[in-house]
User: Which sequence fits this backbone?
């Protein structure tokens, strides 16, 4: 009887050790995954990227169709679009630890749109694409390579 209790106790201890080992491995795997995501610094989800590209595409389409060429209405739309992109970058923190020009891209795209005849260029789409690319892990490697000292 004592042997059976000892064997049962040993089996129970072995099961507990196995469970603790599995939990430890799972925590380590989750920790490595979280550290990799933080190290990559990617803050743009797929939905946000498509929404911003859609917004930029809508602005460029409106400009291309001629609405952006109407003096006051086109300027208001261009300034509104530039502010939305700028605040998207600031609120999401997409310009932190990135090349210096990320904060200024929205203003640059807006300036191109405000120039007469610049409405035909897809400047908002290009602005959002550059912001998205720089905030991916692949884009961050290139940004480090291209950014000045």
Assistant:
């Amino acid at each position: 009887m004592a042997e059976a209790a000892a064997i049962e106790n040993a089996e129970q201890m072995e099961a507990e050790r196995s469970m603790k080992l599995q939990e430890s491995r799972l925590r380590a795997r989750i920790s490595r995954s979280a550290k990799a995501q933080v190290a990559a610094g990617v803050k743009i989800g797929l939905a946000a990227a498509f929404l911003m590209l859609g917004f930029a595409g809508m602005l460029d389409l409106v400009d291309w169709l001629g609405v952006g060429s109407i003096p006051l209405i086109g300027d208001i739309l261009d300034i509104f679009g530039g502010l939305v992109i700028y605040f998207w970058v600031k609120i999401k923190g997409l310009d932190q630890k990135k090349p210096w020009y990320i904060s200024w891209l929205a203003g640059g795209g807006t300036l191109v749109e405000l120039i007469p005849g610049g409405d035909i260029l897809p400047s908002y789409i290009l602005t959002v694409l550059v912001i998205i690319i720089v905030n991916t892990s692949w884009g961050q490697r290139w940004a480090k390579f291209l950014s000045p000292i």
Observations:
- The mean pLDDT is 80.
